[in-house]
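From the shared-data thread, chain only:
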Amino acid sequence: MTELTHLTIKSAIESLEKKEFSSAELVQAHIDATEKARHLNAFITETPEIALEQAKASDARRAKGEAGPLDGIPLAIKDMYCTKGVRTTAASNILHNFVPPYESTVTDKLFNAGAVMIGKSNTDEFAMGTTTESSAFGNTINPWKRKGDNTDLIPGGSSGGSAAAVAARMAMGGTGTDTGGSIRQPAAMCGIAGIRPTYGRCSRWGIIAYASSFDQAGVLARTVEDCALLLQNMSGFDPKDSTSADIPVPDFPAATRTGDVKGLKVGVPKEFRVEGMPEIIEKNWQKGAQWLKDQGAEVVDISLPHTKYALPAYYILVPSEASSNLARFDGVRYGLREHDDPETLLDMYERTRASGFGDETKRRIMLGTFTLSAGYYDAYYVKAQRVRRLIQQDFLKAFEKVDVILTPPTPSAAYPIGENDDDPIAMYLNDVFTVPLNLAGLPGMSVPSILTPEGLPLGLQVIGKPWDEATVLKTARAIERAAGFNAMPSSVQTGAA
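Structure, as tokens:
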């Protein structure tokens, strides 16, 4: 049943409806694939028993004619989403034994639609990272390799576990969270599609918080249409989330059925041509613009003048919010508690947080605490908030004359694990093309486009107006159709993932 793992979500649903195979068979094929590819460390917690129970229930519903829109589809759930009765760690030692008594709104919606959970996928600790190397449970390995080189590569991050699982055919889709590019960047590096919707489109309730005004739930899958199907079933207003928007959810899959971009105005921002950008990234970008032009779109040069300030502003604001959010992990109510004869309550706090948090998490907490401290708040935090508003205004002004914006999602293809371990600044630069739209709260999608000469995937990023995910999906589908990207990791082709 290996071939079942190569189906798209859409084709699998059609085959399930025709009774060509059962949900149990589909899920078992993905469980088998997960066992074969366990060396990739894509999952922190595998849930085969739960998956098979959900598949059995799915088959029963289908037999009664009561199947949901995602019934029987196996997904990887990023371990930032609380799942009732299933360990949820945020890839941190401080939550290594945490079992939530409640379900996140997004996973609840997906399970109500019939989706099946293969496991909780790996992530950078508290989603703080771009490589999935900061996980307390070990790094995830990208299933792609350079031609003639067996060096392990990063899958991107922080949703690297979900991206690797989808690329390696362990899951048909996966949930992610995107604070500064953590869906689009790993999607690009793993040769799959991934969308971050407008801030407020999907509920954040039950997702472990990193930076509350940036975090947004989203999805990864192998096609644009599969992403649309998943997004359709996880979007919507949630009264439990004060940042959830009470606005109608469009028919996202319908937007992908034609991919008609005739007359669409596509903006190309000059500020995204950064110094030292590899030639292959520029060529890929130009090729994407030409693909859209060939399909009737108009390519327009635009300016986003405050883009150069996006990374500095982001790495002031996000650690500040993280410093506040992570203060709740103190060893008192849940998670790790270091309590071997503490001298004081403060001593217990310090011991717990020192042993529970990893280096990158500590680095960002300290940075955020510094920028929020007396004497520095106005100089750093307030100024960064002003820059954030200027960046948002740049985008809104650009959208007065264009419908979408086309950029690269990453400054390079996947690179070897450990390459930037001693240089966090170099690692932060991975977000240079993704962070600006997070500051503005906009929707963005990465879609695979070409392979580099070394045989690694590159993607293109489509940025849309607020609440206009439909146009983002339509444009991404046009790129997908023109690119004809059907490459997969060599290990998957040989069945040795």
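The longest helix spans residues 377-398.
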